[in-house]
Design brief:
With 506 residues, this protein is mainly β. It contains one helix and 41 strands.
Length: 506
């Protein structure tokens, strides 16, 4: 008998069995344990962008893709904060805070439903943006998808270019996510009493014009620090823990094309910089910002990097790269690097202002106010900087290398690049004694005699109004005279106090 005639049936039976075995476990069902087998998602962020006007629930879809030829077992799908998250997950019909050992076939996907239950009426003690994440662990790989929901009734601005001639009303807060842009030849007007909250790393970028409280007129009424007409810029974390923490958002930036900006009766706090003019090429006309009756506080930025130039600079209450600033009746305080830093050319005027840079939270080794042409481009160094400071207080209390920092003012320019006019100011400095008041001492750390300076046991309830017997009280003034102070209190017309506050004698 021919052996091949016996072998052929055996081979046929073997092939049939093999095909049945492959059919029982196709390749897409075989689980791979390779660390290279990662997941992909329909989005890296699930955003609940509905403005909640009442307690509401919204469900969003998140597709989870396995692009691998073989199956994967997702060891854990969970919320980042399962104990107190407003989010719930639904997977394979079961709702909860997560699931374990979820298998996804090769070239297949699963659907995760994410549900948010947000109470917008919880009040100002809750953050506007409520964040969590969905975490995935597969073959030792940790991946996550962000969850973001709006938690209060507000106007939300998400990475938008604002309409020209936009007006921000004061009936609801404005919340910025991913920054906003005021375009060239456009104006943003912010009404009295408006509250503006920015998410981490967000900013207001102005290429056109910004008008903050530009037409507000309090008459003869005192405008207290708690006055409802003050426009307030802060971070969007409203829990008490974050109330005085610097660097939570970027700040307000004016680009080279910006012009005729006005910031009045405002408070800017907890940012990386307060007000920044960024015109490194010294384009003309330079951007101009007029600042009146404004408080800038709790400012710190760690190595801010600006796109053009690639250089790193630290934060400041006022940062000027070839810009023009005019400050009147302003308080700048608790700035971890600089209260004022001016680089390149420009005009800087300050009248009846208080720089009280007491920084108990920082180990500051820089003067509060610095003017320099270091780092300036050749275009920015062609015109001199003009600094005019009158009737102001420049003081601080910090230690560098264990020694009290006695110079809160610095000029560093090539010859001919600076014009200085400092008249009738109380300044902590050893370098520029010609600018000090007659008989001024530079040794006493609390020399201006502020009522409640930082770092001496007053927590965050600082008060930089002058105490009795302050050497900054009852001085002759250098023109121009400003008849009312930061709080709109009338100044003594013959012998006013220096700085932003006029002390009322009992």
């Amino acid at each position: 008998m021919n052996p091949m005639r016996l072998l052929l049936p055996v081979l046929s039976i073997f092939l049939c069995i093999s095909s049945l075995l492959v059919g029982c476990e196709p390749k897409e069902d075989v689980i791979t344990t390779s660390a290279s087998a990662k997941l992909e998602f329909s989005s890296d962020t699930v955003k609940f962008d509905t403005v909640f006007v009442q307690k509401g629930t919204v469900t969003k879809r998140l597709w989870v893709y396995n692009r691998n030829a073989r199956a994967v077992k997702v060891e854990q799908i969970s919320l980042g904060m399962p104990a107190n998250s407003p989010y719930t997950l639904t997977l394979n019909g079961e709702a909860g805070v997560g699931a374990s050992n979820v298998e996804i076939r090769g070239k297949d996907s699963v659907l995760v439903l994410v549900r948010a239950a947000i109470d917008p009426t919880a009040g100002d003690g809750k953050p506007f943006l409520i964040e969590d994440q969905v975490r995935f662990r597969t073959n030792g790989n940790d991946q996550n998808v962000r969850l973001i929901a709006y938690g209060q009734n507000a106007y939300f601005h998400d990475g938008e270019t604002l309409p020209c001639d936009a007006v921000w009303r004061n009936d609801k807060p404005h919340v910025i996510y991913n920054s906003v842009l005021v375009g060239p030849n456009c104006t943003l007007t912010i009404e009295p009493g408006t509250r503006v909250y920015s998410h981490a790393n967000s900013a207001i970028v102005v290429q056109g014009r910004l008008l903050v409280n530009a037409n507000f007129n309090p008459g003869t009424a005192t405008v207290k620090a708690t006055d409802r007409n003050i426009v307030r810029f802060a971070a969007d974390r409203l829990e008490p823990f974050y109330n005085e923490i610097p660097g939570q958002w970027r700040g307000i930036q004016f680009d080279a094309s910006s012009h005729d900006n006005v910031v009045r009766y405002a408070e800017i706090k907890n940012a990386s910089f307060g007000l920044l003019v960024y015109n490194p090429q010294n384009l003309q006309p330079r951007p101009r910002v007029t600042v009146e009756n404004t408080v800038i506080k709790n400012i710190s930025g760690a190595a801010l990097t600006f796109a053009s130039g690639g250089q790193n600079f630290t934060g400041g209450g006022i940062l000027s790269f070839s810009g023009d600033f005019s400050l009147t009746n302003c308080l700048i305080t608790n700035c971890g690097e600089y209260a004022v830093l001016s680089i390149g050319s420009g005009l800087f005027g300050m009248n009846f202002c208080t720089v009280a840079n007491f920084t108990p939270s920082f180990k500051r080794d820089s003067p509060s106010m610095a003017f320099t042409d270091d780092f300036a481009t050749p275009q920015a160094a062609r015109q001199p900087t003009v600094v005019d400071i009158r009737n102001s207080i420049i003081w601080g209390n910090t230690f560098a290398n264990g020694l009290l920092l006695k110079d809160e003012l610095l000029f560093k320019f090539k010859p001919g690049n600076i014009q200085r006019n400092l008249v009738n100011n109380l300044i902590r400095t050893d370098l520029y004694k010609e600018y000090q008041l007659p008989n001024q001492s530079n040794n006493e750390s609390n020399y201006p005699k502020f009522k409640r300076p930082a770092g001496v046991g007053y927590s965050d309830k600082f008060d930089y109004q002058l105490d009795t017997l302050s050497p900054a009280s009852n001085k002759r003034y250098a023109t121009p005279f400003v008849s009312r102070d930061l709080l709109n209190v009338a100044r003594d017309p013959s012998s006013p106090d220096l700085g932003a506050y006029e002390r009322l004698n009992p």
